Amino acid sequence: MEPILSHLSFQIKENAIDSFMDEIKTPVTDPVFFSVGLPNKKLIPKKQLQAMTNMLFENDPSNLYNYCSSKGYDPFISTISAKETIAENFIMVTNGNTQGFDLVCRMLLNQKDSFAMEAYTYSIAHSAIHQYNLNAIEIPLQQDGMDMDVLEASIKKVPIKALYIIPNAQNPTGITISLEKRKRLIDLAYQYNFIIIEDDPYRELLFDERIPSLFELDPLKEKVIYLYSFSKIIAPAMRTGFILAHPVYIQKLEQFKQIQDACTSPINQMIINNLISSYVWPDLLEQQKNFYENRKKITQHFLINMHKKYGWLSSDPAGGLFYWVNVLDGDVLEWMKYAAASGVIFVPGKAFSLNDVTNTKIRICYAYCNDDEMMKGFERLEESFVKWKNNVQ
Amino acid sequence: MEPILSHLSFQIKENAIDSFMDEIKTPVTDPVFFSVGLPNKKLIPKKQLQAMTNMLFENDPSNLYNYCSSKGYDPFISTISAKETIAENFIMVTNGNTQGFDLVCRMLLNQKDSFAMEAYTYSIAHSAIHQYNLNAIEIPLQQDGMDMDVLEASIKKVPIKALYIIPNAQNPTGITISLEKRKRLIDLAYQYNFIIIEDDPYRELLFDERIPSLFELDPLKEKVIYLYSFSKIIAPAMRTGFILAHPVYIQKLEQFKQIQDACTSPINQMIINNLISSYVWPDLLEQQKNFYENRKKITQHFLINMHKKYGWLSSDPAGGLFYWVNVLDGDVLEWMKYAAASGVIFVPGKAFSLNDVTNTKIRICYAYCNDDEMMKGFERLEESFVKWKNNVQ
């Protein structure tokens, strides 16, 4: 069979994380997944979601079962407007940041455009690179975020159309970009005329005070398109998030959203609207932050020990779900096989970069697994690392 | 402000139905909407949806709150597989047929491809025409469906890449394509190598026995991609449907779905899976069919009367939600203003064709409005029609 396909179909590739994970088989019956970048199950507000849903069915608001505007359910947009202190015409609801990013790409990008991003970054950006056959420009990360000198030098040589950035508790490195660099990035966007796509699902999971977003810092709101998702703080299954952008962009995005799926599930929008408007919500967020901060400390304790014993280097995430670890030499794809045999799974750094040649980095998600799995996972990491190193020598 | 946009952004246009409806203002406090192509509110299985949702929260299946595979929630795919008697690797879940159609277009179409469709048809097809700057080929409809001689003659002159068809109770005409023409269309697809996109949301709302779908009739399952939605028989707000296609296509569609929104809300998939597997489901469908058949008869009675008095011609829909009416002369866009002033809204035929020059046709949806609104709507249609005709002369 010779399928009939578009150019895009030939360019699109499987997600890099998935393709690495597809190959991993573990013989162990109780594997520990440091690979899964998901919120911890304990933190899902199950009772509240059930109560909100029942309240919704009982109240039976008009249009509960209907389509809503592609922009989103009006009262939900009002809530977002109040919480984000931005006018309603700057807001569109999405099915989470995956859709937000896809819609923004459809609106902005042509084949072969130049597109900058952090090296390393979430593989969603690489999907766009493949699909649109983009000229990908990876900008190195420093402790305080993207290297702005390298970025500017690069733009001077090759102008870019858009830049993708995860500003807070970045996936995979855990890095948060500083206020100074945020301001400089916006200046660059105005000076060299490109769009910043700000993907910010971890902002509520920062352990310290939040720095203003690039969108908040953008004086004219013309250069930053802001993506927010409730997947990390409520539940991925709700498939709900929003975009903040200049109304000129929101109008276009709304047209693409209408074509793409008419609207985000209005029932899910109503449930989330009720939940984030309820008096329990700040407490629920606080619980999450404390939980992840505790998890981070436990992981840090382990990683300091590994640094002493084996020289591992690691980030010091100021929030979010991830630790980024550099084991200095060897190919971690080899280690992964030993790790899987021992019953622990992580994601290799290669999954987060188009040009990673070092092969010494891994991402550990400390959020998802159960409390009793954490120490077991750490033991298996060390055990498999030692086996790998012994066998390599 | 000079926005940064893709080529697609310049090509995409507002939905034709919306742009006609945007202009309609009615001074009446109780307008009757024959324009709204939605299921009747009375038929939404509210109690069952609430019960299924609560059962779900109580049972708390693992992964209830998580992402699921982009292909869909496994038990839901199993249910679809059993009901459609097709292997699971031919199935992908979508957020309804809007998304199904968009994903298929992304997979199949390049700019300027040739694309055939019924004249008249649902405006979703025209959105694709604009977005991909396609060579649009409109094939006239006969009482038993698309004119196959015209189609074949057209293909001989200009080969097509894909064809969009609503086989049952077509929107807007209510026409159902005959078995003979279905078979011939599939023969043509193999002979001239094009894909048939079969959009079938009304199949459960046929008053008589269902003819096999084009997908069922396709011997090798290589030429038909089948789109199904639960929006018309459960609720649009659930945003759930599915695609049936050859596994070669399903694999590609899954990649696009992953990029587009990761997955359809797993909670909504689980609720619908429970509902359509429950013993009440066949009764609920039967109720819907009976309700719409009764509505059709009431509308038919009115339209026979209008035929006698004013010569109106109308279709005889074998199911679905729509009557297609031809008032023979004048421009119905003018009538719309009188109708809105009288408090009744319909959609002009122009919204369903790229090249409609007659301007004498309208679509009446007999499904959505309340029982007590039906007769009022008919009175206002006649009253406004008479006023229009008197003023024109």
Automatic annotation (TrEMBL), chains A, B:
Pfam families: Aminotran_1_2. GO terms for molecular function: pyridoxal phosphate binding; transaminase activity. Keywords: Aminotransferase, Pyridoxal phosphate, Transferase. GO terms for biological process: alpha-amino acid metabolic process. InterPro entries: Aminotransferase_I/II_large, Class-I_PLP-dep_aminotransf, PyrdxlP-dep_Trfase, PyrdxlP-dep_Trfase_major, PyrdxlP-dep_Trfase_small. Residues 48-381 form the Aminotransferase class I/classII large domain. It comes from the Bacteria. Its cofactor is pyridoxal 5'-phosphate. This is PLP-dependent aminotransferase family protein.
